[in-house]
Amino acid sequence: MLRVNNIDVYYGEVQALWEVSLQVSEGEYVALLGANGAGKTTTLNTISGLLRPKKGNIEFLGQDLSHVPAYKTAEMGIAHVPEARRLFPEMTVEENLIMGSLPKRAKEKRKESMDWIFTLFPRLKERRHQEAGTLSGGEQQMLAIGRGLMLRPKLLMLDEPSLGLAPFLVDEVFKIIKKINEEGITILLVEQNVMHALNSCTKAYILESGRITLQGRGKDLLSNEHVREAYLGI
Amino acid sequence: MSYFEVKNLVKRFGGLVAVNNISFSVEKGEIFGLIGPNGSGKTTIFNCINRYYSPTGGKIYFKGKRIDKLPTYEICRLGIGRTFQVVKPLRRMTALENVMSGAFLKTSDVAKARDRALEVLDFCGLFRYRHFPAKGLTIADKKRLEIARALATEPELLLLDEVAAGLNPRETEAAMEIIQKIRSSGVTILIVEHVMKVIMGISDRIMAINFGKEIARGTPQEIVNNEEVIKAYLGESYAQGK
Amino acid sequence: MLKKFWFLSIIIVIAIILPLIVQSSYYRHIFILILIWGALGVAWNLLGGYTGQVSFGHAAFFGVGAYGAGLLAFHLHISPWWGMIVGPVAAVIVSIPIGLICFRLRGPYFALAMLAVGEICRLVFTQWVSLTNGAMGILTLTTFSSKLPYYYIGLAILSFSVYTVYRLMNSRAGYYFVSIREDQDAAESLGIPTTKYKMYSLIPSAFFSGLAGAFYMNYMNYIEPSVVFSLPDVSIMIILVVILGGVATLWGPVVGAIIFVVLSELLRSSLGPAHLLVFGVIVCLVIMYMPNGIMGEVDRIKKLLQRKGARIGSEIT
Amino acid sequence: MSLFWQTLICGLLLGGVYALIAIGMTLIMGVMKIINLAHGALVMIGMYITYVCFHYWGIDPYIAIFISMPALFFLGCLIQKYSINVLIGKESILPENQVLLTVGIMLVLTETMRLIFGSDYKSVHTSYTGTSFFIGDVSVSIPMAISFVIAMVFTYALHIFLTKTDIGRSIRATAQDKEAAILMGVNTNKITIVTFGLGSALAAAGGTLLVPIYYLFPDIGHAFVAKSFIITILGGMGSTMGALFGGLTLGIAESFGATYISMELKDVVGFVIFIIVLLFLPGGFKSLTKR
Q1: What does the pLDDT average to over B106-116?
Q2: In degrees rounded to 5, what are phi and psi of residue A28?
Q3: How many Cα atoms occupy the beta-carbon half-sphere of A135 within 13 Å?
Q4: Whole-number Å distance between alpha carbons of B74 and A95
Q5: CA-nearest residue of chain A to D286?
Q6: What fold, for B4-79+156-241?
Q7: In Å, how far are A208, C76, C81, C244 from C131, measured between CA atoms?
Q8: Domains (ranges, CATH) in chain D?
Q9: How many whole angstroms separate alpha carbon B62 and alpha carbon B51?
């Protein structure tokens, strides 16, 4: 479904990614792991078109994304839930959700999608007329995921959904992601929280300093000593 | 009283408590590390120390003097230098001019400042880039430039904020070397770092925080084996599995 | 270094003998306008270009300088030439509270606050009729019948301002000014008291703006608030002069003044009423395609020709 | 006492039209993060279009709004697309170069009008010019009242547009977080163009509504840029509701300044409020509601 082929990405003159490749198949739950600054967010931003690779290319559903402007990737069915949530703080919960369903295909199902999201996250229904900026961290994360789902995406990319959440909320977020995946939505997850991610994903890639250093099934990587090393440096 | 001391530091942003009652002290000549997952409040502590932010509560002492009400530049004049996690090079100035801007703290003479800056650039391995505009440097060199600029102010206490983030292994090694060299020159160091290899390798003592609160404190060995720390970094189940 | 010395010497010689060769009083008038705009540009460039504190209200200092000279003659019947001292000093005195208030703001907010300061000055000088004679302005007598003395006084003022800026920019203060422009937070954390140094940049800037204003009064022998405090014709034009020539370069404002005055005169004589329109179009094109001005582009072209990107040398001036 | 009410009503009515103009500016400021110094010139062009409509074709100023608004919408889109957007991503030493570009645009617009119409003052005399009605012993100018009502209708319509339509929401989203808006599928480049067009159209509407009340001349724009700033700063950047309150506040403050201090110093009152708010209430009135 998604193929990232040997991309090199630069910020100005500074290289951030070196020949990164990854594949995500229909219905999969893929995790992209790595320490802070390893290039995970850069990878996602390149997929959704916010950054352009200097070398290599990205294909989505067989179509080359090289010349597709960033705003069109949403139309093609890629929902990107960005790092730090990036909600529209002065819009209500409902308006934020509506913003997630601008492309035509999603707009037709707007009402239906919203009901679905309110069953997934009952908290959001209670707060539907509240401004997003006034929500708690956990609620904001749920709203961010909900906003992504409003697109009725084929691929849902989540950037550090556990960031800044208390442990019990982290558990909940991962349960919901699993559930979304079980409903047939393909997931590409970026995480620092290795254990949670490896436990639930089907396939994982480990990024270190802008390069993919390990890949494999989640369960296999769990026992790999290198993972621990990459994180704790022991 | 300790050389440098933070007492009951609190920083709130609206309803969010970013730093929640943190206390620690640093002794002269040591390297003290601060670790914690993303968003745990480490950089906020730094920003409170050099008063980039005003702390909501608590006190900070340096050499017996209370500094938490002083303006940023005054704190630097007292001998506390810092680097920024998100590098702030003076973009259109050359590397040399960047470092000279720091060196002018101790002298108003241009020639002396230039000599001092060249010395520091050499120390940090940036000598050959001295005439490059700062905006054109690689991220690794920009991080070094941050250190060089802070060093040029001849600090007694240096706050290093994630100097290794985004560097490749070779660059990380080089950064560690520089930090060790700085310490041998007699500068006390307070370091925030995400790359564990760095902080474990060079710190004398480490404090780990999560959600703005202290979760552990001790030598690198103690920290690595601390259950709370492993939990914070790798997740609940990992800690139980080990 | 030697090349630079010769270049500078030649320019000085040309500047000195030029009005002796060109006898036309119209051309001499143009030269004097260039000198006034040059001095204003150099003054603005110190604060706006080097220190990065873009001011939309420099007319305040120009106008206060001009009125400093004019009011001496108007009320006390003293020669307005004494205003060459009183004017700039008055501008500096006015600049201190303005700076202390407005430097609490950053970026566009500062620019706007300065705009408001300029407009407040214009309105106050227009309305305070008992002091300023209001919109009727102030008229004095001509001192010299020839333009020659004015030219040399103007040249002296411009040289003085360029030299002062040159000295400042090659001292600690200069490095601090540019540091503040490039990143105020980084500057603070390097121990630079940024507000203090912004004041150090504002005060000479106000001084030379006031000096230019006082000279303008003496040269034109007539001022009124809507002219010397004008937002579009003074405050904004100064910025355009600097942009045309080259922001944050020593000679940029002078080059800008030459282009600005010559261009305006050429357009005025050739296009008549449309000259301001064409001027506006040129301004837009310059900002869009040459945002760092002529001198900025010259540097870039030089660099391209030399192909020695690495060896730029430490020249912040 | 009746002087007080007279002053208040006068200020309120004028303030409503100011608000409409300032909302146009605050929209542009919110989305593009720039101060549009050409805004007053856009108001001025709106006024001249109305003048032409009345003078040559006998169209009533309040009808002419349907000509001036679309015309300025189109002009605004062109300005954004072919000049301001060209600067995006260009590096220059002065961070304000987009603002300076709007100065250049202001010059071009003003001088174009001067070339066509000359510098002299023009005015439009309709059958209702100078008429008024009374509430108690307070006289209310009929054209001012009509202008106020229309301005409020437009403000309300804009509010509905911004909150109930996808384009309106996209404009707000772009102002709040541009990158996130792109991820939602918003073509932000197009949004900036539409926003500048919309802001210009509102400026034109404000200009048209002022024609029955004011004189017009090419330099009248300067006064409106200044007023719009003050209002925007009062209300908080990018806030339409803030701009409405800011506009009414400025109108009333000017009116009281004129009555109780001096007619000539009424503009100083505005600037003084501006600096005070800038210093002590950096977020404008909007920040007060956040406590």
Answers
A1: 94
A2: -75, 165
A3: 29
A4: 46
A5: A90
A6: Rossmann fold (3.40.50)
A7: 73, 12, 19, 37
A8: 2-290 (1.10.3470)
A9: 13
DSSP letters for C236-292: IHHHHHHHHH-TT-SSHHHHHHHHHHHHHHHHHHHHGGGHHHHHHHHHHHHHHH-TT
Please state at what angle helix D97-117 crosses helix D220-235, rounded to 10 degrees: 150
Measured distance CA(C34)–CA(A131) in Å, rounded: 56
Please determine, for residue B122, whether its predicted confidence score (pLDDT) is greater than 50.
Answer: yes
Task: Assign B137 to helix, strand or coil.
Answer: coil
Give residue for tokens 């407040």: C120
> What DSSP string describes A14-66?
EEEEEEEEEEE-TT-EEEEE--TTSSHHHHHHHHTTSS--SEEEEEETTEE-T
CB contact under 8 A, C112 and D264: no
Instruction: Report helix, strand and coil shares of chain C as percent, to nearest 5.
Output: 80, 0, 20
Instruction: Sketch the domain layout of chain B as residue ranges.
Output: 4-79+156-241, 89-154
Give the pair of three-digit tokens for residue D34: 């720039």
A111 residue type, one letter: K
* SS3 assignment, position B208: strand
Q: Are C216 and C210 in contact (CB under 8 A)?
A: no
3-state SS assignment for residue A3: strand
Which residues does A contribute to its contact with B (CB < 8 Å)?
11-14, 16, 35-37, 137, 160, 163-164, 166-167, 170-171, 192-196, 199, 209-210, 228, 231-234
What does the pLDDT read at residue B138?
Answer: 79
Task: Write the pLDDT tens digit of every residue in D144-159.
Answer: 999 999 999 999 999 9
Q: What is the pLDDT of residues A133-173, one digit of tens each?
A: 888 878 888 999 999 999 999 999 999 888 767 777 888 88
Q: How remote is the C-alpha of A141 from its chain's centroid?
A: 12
Beta carbons within 8 Å of A187's beta carbon, 6+ residues apart: A28, A29, A30, A155, A156, A157, A158, A177, A180, A181, A201
Regarding chains C and A, contact by 3 or more CB pairs under 8 A is answered as no
Mean pLDDT of B206-213: 88
Q: Is D26 exposed, middle or buried (0-12, 13-18, 19+ CB in 10 A)?
A: buried
Region of B220 on the Ramachandran plot (φ > 0 left; ψ -120 to 50 alpha; else beta): alpha
Q: Which residue has the higher pLDDT, C286 or D90?
A: C286
Write the pLDDT tens digit of every residue in C272-295: 778 888 888 988 888 888 877 787
The DSSP 8-state label assigned to residue C136 in this structure reads G
Helix ranges (H only) for chain B are 42-49, 72-78, 95-103, 110-123, 139-152, 169-184, 196-202, 220-224, 227-234, 236-241
Global pTM reads: 0.86
Tokens 């401004």 found at: A131
What are the residues facing A78 on neighbouring strands? A155
Tokens of D289: 């509601």
* A residues 125-184 lying closer than 8 A (beta carbon) to D: 147, 151
pLDDT of residue B234: 62
Residue C215 CA: distances (Å) to CA of A135, C26, C67, C76, C86: 61, 18, 11, 18, 11
Which uninterrupted H or E stretch holds A230? helix A225-232
**Mutate which: D183, D193, D241, D286, vs A, most A CBs within 10 A:** D183
pLDDT > 60? residue B239: no
Instruction: Say how far apart CA D65 and CA B184 lie, in whole Å.
Output: 76
Query: Measured between alpha carbons, how far is A11 from A45 in angstroms, rounded to an integer?
Result: 12
Residue whose entry in the numeric block shows the structure tokens 């019948």: C145
The chains in contact with chain B, meaning 3 or more Cβ pairs closer than 8 Å, are A, C
ipTM of the complex: 0.83
Q: What three-state secondary structure class fits D221?
A: helix
Q: Considering only CA atoms, which of C73, C39, C74, C72 is closest in space to residue C58? A: C39
Over the Cα atoms of chain B, what is R_g?
A: 18
